């Protein structure tokens, strides 16, 4: 049975990923900060293990990885993300910017460093970093959003370097934009439902090849310029 590990799996896109893989019979490792409050995850039927994990806690990441040494992970989805306060030019909270980098940029790399053996030893060998079109330099016509944009742009650079470094081991690393989705982060007015976003992403994840490693995909499978 193939297996997937998802961070930030208690709500939004992460929870929908967990539900979707579980329905298809995958072994799901669902990570979240507060498992006791993760009612949506607790309600999922299937082969699911819930792990307590704040992705900024390096010791905890290492301990969860060590506890799963015998397990293979076919797909690692670095989904946990943080937008932070919506402050513009002249209002930047520099401490919060650092925290945003820890969640959106540094934690995905730390996850890969800790789980590389699990992924490289699996059949699928795929790492998916959930980024955002907001991190595309080419597509930035709206300006602002300094903190979130820069953290996702940096995640894209991390993704590219990982793709190069892990290519020899046969590990595929991509970053994806889920669309503007109706979640707590995306807001109620967002045009895309969670289920449309995740079904598009599942299709993409299902067919992406090793030759496509290091690319930045939209949820519909098209390429997003850096
Ligand atoms: N929604 C959109 O329109 C959109 C667009 C582009 C990209 N994205 C990206 O898609 C991903 C999922 O976002 P979403 O829309 O589903 O947002 P969401 O509903 O706000 O969910 C964010 C998830 O990340 C988790 N998280 C935040 N900080 C964490 C930490 N330190 N450790 C572990 N988990 C943490 C949250 O856990 P808690 O519940 O514990 O806070 C939650 O599970 C994010 O990477 C986001 O940047 C979303």
TrEMBL record:
CDD domains attached to this UniProt entry: carb_red_sniffer_like_SDR_c
Domain of life: Bacteria
One Pfam match: adh_short
Gene Ontology MF: a single term: oxidoreductase activity, acting on the CH-OH group of donors, NAD or NADP as acceptor
Signal peptide from the UniProt entry: none
Residue ranges that the Swiss-Prot or TrEMBL entry lists as coiled coil: none
InterPro entries reported for this sequence: NAD(P)-bd_dom_sf, SDR_enzymes, SDR_fam
Similarity field: Belongs to the short-chain dehydrogenases/reductases (SDR) family.
Protein name: Short-chain dehydrogenase
Lineage, opening ranks: Bacteria, Pseudomonadati, Pseudomonadota, Alphaproteobacteria, Rhodospirillales
